[in-house]
Design brief:
Blueprint (H helix, E strand, L loop, with lengths): L9 H13 L4 H13 L5 H30 L15 H19 L5 H22 L4 H16 L5 H14 L3 H8 L4
Helix pairs in contact: 1-2, 1-4, 2-3, 3-4, 5-6, 6-7, 7-8
Length: 189
């Protein structure tokens, strides 16, 4: 597991890739630049190498997929099977770089805050409850599991179990978001 995680936006990775490419850099040099950004200024050589390997695997996957798409359409493969990244050019290079940037920038984005996750779970709970009413007890276990996950998530935010259950019930009845339902169930509203 990596000990240094640097959040890098798509824009930051894309700008770095473009700058290296415009300076005459090869795809290998572009991948190394992205890996260095992801490892961060305090990143070790091992972290850099791990990021570089991950980027290489991502690029290989998308390059191979694009080659198969071209081969399916034209009957010929655009690059030999033993071609290196530095032989990649044109639109295919643009596409591979774009996928590398998208894939690795998304990995670096921070997770949603707990309240956003709680509201998503609450929406899922509402849908499961509606399915249970419409289609019967088959969806009962799904509803119960979502309810328990939501109670557990609220517990990580210092909401005790009884208050969480009351807030969820209030939110389901009133259609409120979870934060407002917790405040109401706690007597704050």
């Amino acid at each position: 597991m990596l000990s240094t995680v640097t959040t890098a936006s798509r824009e930051k990775l894309s700008d770095a890739a473009r700058d290296v490419r415009e300076a005459g850099g090869t795809p290998t040099q572009i991948f190394a630049t992205i890996a260095r950004i992801l490892a961060g200024p305090a990143g070790t050589d091992e972290e850099f190498t791990t990021h570089l390997d991950d980027i290489g695997q991502t690029a290989s996957f998308f390059w191979d997929d694009l080659c198969h798409q071209v081969e399916d359409k034209t009957g010929t493969r655009p690059y030999s099977p033993d071609a290196t990244f530095d032989e990649l050019t044109g639109d295919m290079l643009d596409d591979v770089l774009n996928w590398v940037v998208i894939y690795h920038a998304e990995e670096a984005e921070p997770p949603a805050p707990p309240i956003v996750l709680a509201d998503s779970l609450l929406n899922g709970l509402r849908k499961a409850a509606a399915l249970k009413v419409e289609y019967g007890d088959h969806y009962g276990p799904v509803r119960a599991q979502l309810h328990e996950v939501l109670v557990t998530l609220l517990g990580t935010q210092s909401v005790d179990r009884d208050l969480a259950v009351a807030a969820i019930d209030h939110a389901l009845v009133t259609g409120k978001f979870i934060a407002e339902a917790v405040a109401h169930a706690d007597g704050q509203l």
